Amino acid sequence: MNAPLPAEVLKQHLIDPEICIRCNTCEETCPIKAITHDSNNYVVDPDICNGCMACVPPCPTGAIDNWRLMVRAEAYGVQEQLGWEELPGEKALPETAAALPADDVPAVTGLAAPAPFSAPGATVPPWSAAHPYVNLYTHKTPMTATVVGNYRVTGADTESDIHHIVLDFGELPFPVLEGQSIGILPPGLDAQGRPHHARQYSLASPRDGERAGYNNLSLTVKRVTEDHAGAAAHGVCSNYLCDLAKNDKVQVIGPFGHTFLMPNHPRANLIMICTGTGSAPMRAMTERYRRRIDTGENGRLLLFFGARTERELPYFGPLMKLPRDFIDINLALSRETGQPKRYVQDLIRERAASVRELLADRNTCIYVCGLKGMEVGVLDALRDVTVQGGQDWSILHDALRREGRLHFETY
Which DSSP category does 326 fall into? Predict the structure, then answer.
């Protein structure tokens, strides 16, 4: 055993403000509410954090995975962290403490045991996913892209103003994969007089570009004019993007994401479940499959797509033109005149036989993207479908997560 330390030491968990894109994933994931934020930073409270690591795998940028071996009395407090623009350097420990390996540092005492935590989806990518590049461009070193297209993809007579925006990177490298996202830096200053933080958007185009062979990508952006409660709210970045014109310049960071990736081996099946702009990664994956439709490499595609009406479904026209033997499309419309309300979980139950057949195939991966509230309904529907087939959902659910075959990207 090593000699007792002269002072309590802890391995302090910190978030890098230069990489963090303020997506709120860490705060939502933390089982003991050790993470908080203000308009500037997301931070970890050293008096609460117990190092359970639950927040680390879901972080799309890796900003959450930073640690400092600290004398407890000198730990960085919440208020200090909220004011950071960058992580501080390492602090020297007392000589006796510095000689200890990190694993010998005693645990911080007096903390409550963490609540049981179980992520709804996988924290690892499918085994065959291509290697993703992340954080090539940061807040300090953003990439400049050029707008080469901006098109509304919902009915002009609907309140849902969703745009398909194409960004070109010229000759500068910006490698991406289906399922990844980027950050957009809107111009101007926030209420505190600081430059706006980046907003995250999923890619709507495949790895070889919105136009095959070109160094560009596309985004699916909804103009935000109200919050989730229906109160008037002006989305700083969404309105900026939706108003862009051809040849405008945009500051981009990223790419982000290392788990919500499509499988890369032949005949992999995809079950895609989305609502609204959650269709972006599904469009990217579908387009990747469409471009190799004649190669014999594709597996089956089963899509559950929800919106209030057909006119509010982004990409409705192009989607309906895809061959029926290429993709199995199921639309859940909750406000269509003369039709009963249906949600994606209702359609999953209606298509139980097809869903069970695909779930029985180890080549099947499931992707869910949309509002946070859809997670419970989708999981309940998958459980019901599995139980109806005489299987144990808890066993299957665990296998899907462990094998990187069930992925959620909700907001």
Answer: T
Q: How many CB atoms lie within 10 A of CB 250?
A: 22
Which entry of 30, 49, 59, 369 is annotated as an active-site residue?
369
Q: Which of 202, 205, 238, 279 is catalytic?
A: 202
In the set 76, 201, 240, 315, the catalytic residue is 201
- Asked if 328 contacts 354 with a C-beta cutoff of 8 angstroms, the reply is yes
pTM comes to: 0.87
- Stretch (H or E) spanning 355: helix 352-359
How distant is the alpha carbon of residue 400 from its chain centre?
18
Active-site residue flag, 357: no
Convert 222-234 into a string of H (helix), E (strand) and C (coil): ECCCECCCCCECC
Whether pLDDT at 96 is above 90: no
CB atoms within 10 A of CB 204: 26
214 a catalytic residue: no
SS3 for 385? Answer: helix
C-alpha closest to that of 152 among 295, 313, 38: 313
> What is the pLDDT, as a whole number, of residue 141?
94
Q: Which amino acid is at 226?
A: E
Q: d(Cα 248, Cα 146) in Å, to the nearest integer? A: 6
**Across all residues in the chain, what is the average pLDDT?**
90
What three-state secondary structure class fits 27? helix
